[in-house]
Every structure is written in structure tokens, then in C-alpha cells.
Design a protein that fits this description.
447 residues, alpha+beta, Lipocalin, 2 domains, 13 helices
Amino acid sequence: MATLKAEPAYWSTIQKVAFRFFMLFFILYIFFNPNGVLPYSDNLQTIYLQPLYKFVPWIGAHILHLDKPIIIAITGSGDTIYDYIILLLIFVMSIVGSAIWSITSRNTSNYNKLLYWLIVIIRYYVAITMICYGFYKIIKLQFPAPSFSRLLEPVGKLSPMGLAWTYMGYSRGFNYFTGSAEIITGLLLFFRKTSALGAIMGLVVAINIMAINYCFDVPVKLLATMLVIMCIFLMLRDTGRLMDFFFRNRETLPSNLTPHRFKAGWKNTTLIAVKYVMIFYTLYFGLADALAREKQYGGKAKKPPLYGIYNVDTFIKNGDTLKPLTTDTIRWQKFMISRDGDAQIQMMDDNVSNYSFKPDFKKHTVVAYAYADTTHKFYLVYNLIKPGPTELKNFKGTNKADTTTYLIIKGAWKKYSVEVWLRRLDPNGFPLFQRDFHWINDAAYNK
């Protein structure tokens, strides 16, 4: 039987001080950023962090003397000024706490037991975070397929994050690959014997996430960076073994994975039960939540009757038919209804505007308004048809065998009346969706 590498009985002063700092730092970070790793932890977070919602803006105004007030709101960003100040508080509290701890615990010889439990906590935090994100990739919630307006938007007008989301959202296979890597990482980290491999794989996955967030200005840089730091911390204990194995071609002893148990047997049994309940909760409810959201607003969400992308064949303003001039800022070029039922209108100069578009399917009426101005509402009527040739005088190139769906919109729009004749296009007609996987390419297909 191979000899296990023994845990050191005595730690150096530097090791003990460093451990005290990182112990406090990681625990405080997880406390302030639970990231949904425990049931209802996000709901509890909003309760116990209430004092900070007032304290952090006070710090920004009176200590850091920031020019702008700190706004506490959900913005879709994890890199807000509030988040950076929280990280600063965690850092300062960890330094002060580790200093006090060092003064009051000078005679402590090692922290082997505390290190064991800290590693367990970090393993589970990274594991659950990875698995949750992994399910959201496999179910294609984090990176949905490019929307109609995105398909029509010039690449040069995309934000770096928009470009990354379009790149990731295009390929279902790539989402399966990256999501599976995250889920496998999480499963490996749940168990002691596979935790080293999980940390190595987690580091690779987290560095890739961090690189995307940094290089494409995705506002989740703090969390991505922390996942990298946590994976590196999980590997520190095996640094010598990994160096010997991968770089020095030397024999190395097995890692000491002996768990630190309690004297009371019931406590150990309870911990094992809690472990498997947490694993079950993460896998079952993580997948169930992702599948439910997929039906709610993902790829399996019910499409509205007017869903589609339409080309504007005829645009009549106040009785006058406008020519399709690229300099025209009034005439529509494309009209799109997304999965959530909202509308995007592309003008002739390629600018796209978003509108709330609430149809009454029984009356064939619509109430629309711009998100930037909810007070001014437009009342329209519509007709969705598959007409015969006598009804196609406003459409070009149609015949009796025509199966295209047409949409006619009439009513008051802004300060004038409009009558718009639209032809529904095939959403799969874009070259991006027409190119399948090919093993053999005699020439590169790069448009």
C-alpha cells in the first residue's frame, strides 16, 4: 500500500498568517456573494445585506469621495461600484481580522483541520457555481440563438459583449461542450478523491471564462477572477506533487485525503447525508430550473402568432407611398417580432428601435410604444394573411402558388398615419444558419 504524504505538524509563521487571511477572505466573499449555492441563499442575502445598501453608498460619498452616488439596483452587471466596494471591505476586514487572529493565536502549531474544512467549502462553492452555469449553457439560456435584430445588425455596431454572446449563441454544440466541461468540473469537485482533477479542470474552465469576460468586456469579471483564485488555492496543497508529476518526471506520494472526522459518529453521518442532499439538490433542481426557464423564455417558449421577421414591401405615409431610400429615417425596412412578443423596427438607415407590441388577437388590434417613451402609445390594426393574386397588388413577384405569409399594419404612428405591407421571411434563410458541419472542405467557406 502506498504511503500517504503526512500533514505537516508545524506551519511556518508565513503559512499561518497567509492561511488566516485567506480563511477570512474566502468565507467573507462567499457570505457576501452566495451565488445561489444554498437553497434560498439569494433570498436570505437580500435580508442580511440590507444594512450594506446604506453603508456602502456612505463609504463612497464620505470616505472614497466618489463623484457620483452609488446606486443599488439590479443592472445585469456583477462589476458595479457597489461590488468593488464590497470587495474592498472584504479585503480590509480580512487584513484586520487576520492581524487580530495572529496576535491572539501565536502558539497554534498548525491549521490542518481548518484548512481541510475551508477546502471543502471552496470545493462546494466552485462546484455548485460551475454546475448551475453549465446547465444554463446546455439548455441554451445563458447564450440564446441570435435574435432577428441581432442578425440584421452590422458587426461594427455590436458591443464586445454582444459579439461574444452572438458567437456563443450561434452554436448549440459549443454550448454543449462548454456546459459539459463546467458540469464535469463540478461533479469532480464534490468528491475528495477526484478534487485535484476537478481543481485542474476548473482552473482551465475558469481561466477561459475570465479571458472572455476580460477581453469582451463582460461585466462578471470579479466572479470569474474569484473562481480562478479559488481553483488555484485548491491546487496549492498539491503543488509539489503536480510539479513532480508534470514537469520533473518524478515519483510522487499520494495526497493525504483522510477526512477530518468528529468524535461523535452521528455528526459524521449527518455531514455525509447533508453532502448527498446538496449534490442531489444542485443536480435535480438546477436542471429542473433550467428546463422550466427554457419553456418560459428559452428555445421551447411558445412563439407569439406574429413571431417572425418581415421585409417591408410597401410603406404608405399619409397616403403617399415612400420609396425605399437608404437616407429615409421614416420608412421601415424590416419589422421583427421576437419570442417575448416585443417588436424591433429597422429603418432604412439600418437603425433599430425597440417597441412594446401588445396585440389583441381577437380584435386584430395592437397597442405599441417605445421603451424610452411609455406615455405616447400608438393604436394600430393588423391583418395576417396568405392571400390570393388579387390581394397582392402591393407585393412584387407573387403568384397563385405563393405560400408566403403577409402582414398588413394600419393606424396612427407617431405624428402621421401609416399603412405597411410586410412579407414574412424565412428565419433560416441567413447564411449563418445555412452552413452545416463539414468534415471535408476543399476550400474555406469564410464570408
